[in-house]
Amino acid sequence: MAYRFRRADRLLKTDEFSSVFRLRQSRSNGYFQVYALPNGLDHARLGLVVGKKVAKRANRRNYIKRTVREWFRLHQHDFAGIDYVVRAKLAYTRDKRGEAMTALDALFAKLARCRASSSS
């Protein structure tokens, strides 16, 4: 099992982001809001949104994006065939990283349960 995060695993174009936002299937908590849309591919893709309102400084926004990408890279095999957009709602630093990743775990688990119940 390869744990890479290739270009093909990312949402890059505005249209790709827009289609995920349009569906509006989302879950949120204090740290993140996660949108999901089936993509018809054999792998999951990730898009990230970290606005200046969340973290004014670019290095803090980049840290949030880097940690979410790393989490997704390690868990992407559990989410095949779905596009996700993760929107950060609250900035965090190294001391709160574990708490934020636990919150992200919970959101993806909620979305998976929601998808399972709607497909049965």
TrEMBL record:
Residues that span the membrane, as ranges? none
The record's InterPro entries line, in alphabetical order, gives: Ribosomal_Su5_D2-typ_SF, Ribsml_uS5_D2-typ_fold_subgr, RNase_P, RNase_P_CS
The family database entries (PROSITE patterns) matched by this protein are listed as: RIBONUCLEASE_P (PS00648)
GO MF entry, a single one: ribonuclease P activity
Spell out the Gene3D superfamilies in the cross-references: 3.30.230.10
Per UniProt, subunit arrangement is: Consists of a catalytic RNA component (M1 or rnpB) and a protein subunit.
Q: What's the stated role of this polypeptide? A: RNaseP catalyzes the removal of the 5'-leader sequence from pre-tRNA to produce the mature 5'-terminus. It can also cleave other RNA substrates such as 4.5S RNA. The protein component plays an auxiliary but essential role in vivo by binding to the 5'-leader sequence and broadening the substrate specificity of the ribozyme.
The UniProt similarity line reads: Belongs to the RnpA family.
Protein name, per record:
Ribonuclease P protein component
Name the species this protein comes from. Crenobacter oryzisoli
